[in-house]
Amino acid sequence: MHRFVIMVAGILVTLAFSASRWPAGGWRDMEMVPGCDPDTTSPVIVYPSQDIAVQLGSCDGSRAAVVFFDVTATDACDPAPALSIDVSASPGGDLQLQNPFGNTFLALATPGTYQLELTATDASGNSRVEDFSIVVSQPPAPVPDVACNGTVVVNLGAGCQRYISADMLLEGDMGCLRDADFRIEIQDADPSNGNILDEVGVYPYSIEPIQPLNAAGFTGPFALSRWGVHVDFQGGVASSVAADSLLLTGSNAPAFAIAVLPIRFGGTLSFRWGMASLPAGGTFEGSLLNPSGNVAASFSSADGASGMENLFVSAGDRLVLQLRSSGQGGSGPVPAAWLTNWVFDYAPVSIAGLPSCWGEIEARDAGPVLDCPDDADRLPLATEVQQLQGELEVTGPVLNPALYSCLAGNNPPGGDHFYELIPFTVTQADVYTFFLDPAFNDGGALMALYQGTFDLANPC
Questions:
Q1: From the CB of residue 58, how many other CB atoms can be counted at a distance below 10 Å?
Q2: Which DSSP string do the residues of 193-234 spell out, in sequence order?
Q3: Are the C-beta atoms of residues 240 and 340 closer than 8 Å to each other?
Q4: Which has the closest alpha carbon to 383: 441, 336, 430?
Q5: Which end of the chain is more exposed for a tag (fewer CB within 10 A), N or C?
């Protein structure tokens, strides 16, 4: 039989794994199942097989990690064993746990170490206990220590222009300061474009600290990449910078989409929300949680309503949006909720001790400089290699990859193939190359990468 290996990818803090499901027949009589009289077998818990580690950026003022994971409890004799999760936190840590949909859990955690103990108990009193940890770390925020730089020499780029950032004009450690924390003016050929340097010459410049300007749209600290996003089944979350919108979508089948924004700054947040469509049974909910997990504000719709929110927020608050599809069937419109007119008015910050500077920029149109190494007939290339190992069993799960377009690219032979899920986590942006070494006698094997929850009924 042709072998099949599935590698399940988790991006940042998103963990993926296969979920066990009770047979489609629904409830089953314990007396009809062999071995259930008496029932002495404990339930099986499917949960993250490895601890989850999250490192926040040192300048992330939200101090909040967004972690999604799935937990499923199954039992041969009880179709719905009870499942409980107890959390033990290290001193100073705070983890808020929610179960927003199905087997999906959401953890909002400040820096600390948390042990989650999972207990599943069936109707006969048989129990199983498993555990895993969530570890959230955050390096100390660097302290800014900057001074003026009297003369700056800059090579111009394409179009005889160059973007001038604050760290090009200041010397020292910028800490968590951003370009948005300064006003830069350059008296060049076009002073109106602020910190854009135009044309060759020597020009006076000035830089001074300012209060943060209002932010509009889903960009910068509010871009979709700053949100924690999770979808189940055919749910979706997308943003459009041009349209100034964030869109959550559902499905005609049961589906779920959630987006969580940890607030990094204090200020006033305003936006409009509404429903593009909301078939019967669908719901849209939004809530602002303070760092203690209490609801500071909420809004919702089960009838297609819309509204406007003006929220006073602090660093550490969390905005949570959830859209559910009930599975209305048919081919009509799917549930869809939107946010737009997003504006953030920053609260005043302390700029004491930050310098205001004046100086000159010498803009040059110099040719590129090539710094070539010495000739060599051999070069070392260091490569970090990690091994993900697994083993296929004749009692393991099977699928037929020829039935699915995303798995049929290598023309696998038809029929069932054994497969294994190998979870792993990617913690930084980079280029990753995967080599599959099956070590089978016939050498045959296939590999697929998944992000999110693997669904055997819908692997694509």
A1: 12
A2: GTTEEESSEEEEEEEEE-PPPPEESS-GGGSGGGSEEEEETT
A3: no
A4: 430
A5: C
Residue ranges making up the domain that contains 166: 145-210+351-364
Instruction: Answer yes or no: do 327 and 356 share one domain.
Output: no
**Structural domains in the chain (count):** 3
Same domain (yes/no): 269, 300? yes
pLDDT > 50? residue 15:
no
Q: pLDDT averaged over the chain?
A: 84
Same domain? For 244 and 321 the reply is yes
Q: Which pLDDT band, with edges at 50, 70 and 90, does 277 fall under?
A: confident
**For residue 210, which phi and psi values (nearest 5 degrees)?**
-135, 165
Contact between 359 and 150 (Cβ < 8 Å): yes
Asked whether residue 411 is domain-assigned, the answer is no
| Cβ proximity of 164 and 154 under 8 Å | yes
**What single string gives the DSSP state of each residue in 63-120?**
--EEEEEE-EEE-SS-SS-EEEEEEEE-TT--EEEEEEETTEEEEEE-SEEEEEEEEE
Give pLDDT tens digits for 146-195: 999 889 999 998 888 999 999 999 999 999 999 989 999 999 999 999 89
- What is the pLDDT at residue 3? 43
Q: What CATH number is associated with residue 192? A: 2.60.40
Half-sphere exposure of 347 (CA within 13 A, CB side): 12
The reported pLDDT for the residue numbered 197 is 94
Same domain, 230 and 161: no
Looking at the fold, whether 113 and 56 belong to one and the same domain comes out as: yes
- Buried b or exposed e, range 389-413, using 16+ CB within 10 angstroms: eeebeeeebebebeeeeebeeeebe
Q: Let me know: does 12 contact 54? Beta carbons within 8 Å.
A: yes
**Tokens 């303070």 found at:** 290
Distance (Å, whole) CA 191 – CA 276: 44
Q: Of 266-270, 304-308, 385-389, give the lowest mean pLDDT range.
A: 385-389
- CA separation, residue 432 to residues 25, 46, 84, 360, 425 (Å): 42, 28, 37, 44, 12
Tally Cβ neighbours within 10 Å of residue 415.
11
The number of beta carbons lying within 10 Å of the beta carbon of residue 194 is 12
222 and 338 together in one domain: yes
Q: Is 150 within a domain? A: yes
Coil, helix or strand for 248?
Answer: strand
Nearest to 206 by CA among 355, 66, 307, 103: 355
CATH number at residue 277: 2.60.120
A 10 A CB-CB count for 182 gives: 23
pLDDT greater than 70 at residue 325:
yes
Is 39 within a domain?
Answer: yes
The better pLDDT of the pair 381, 169 is held by 169
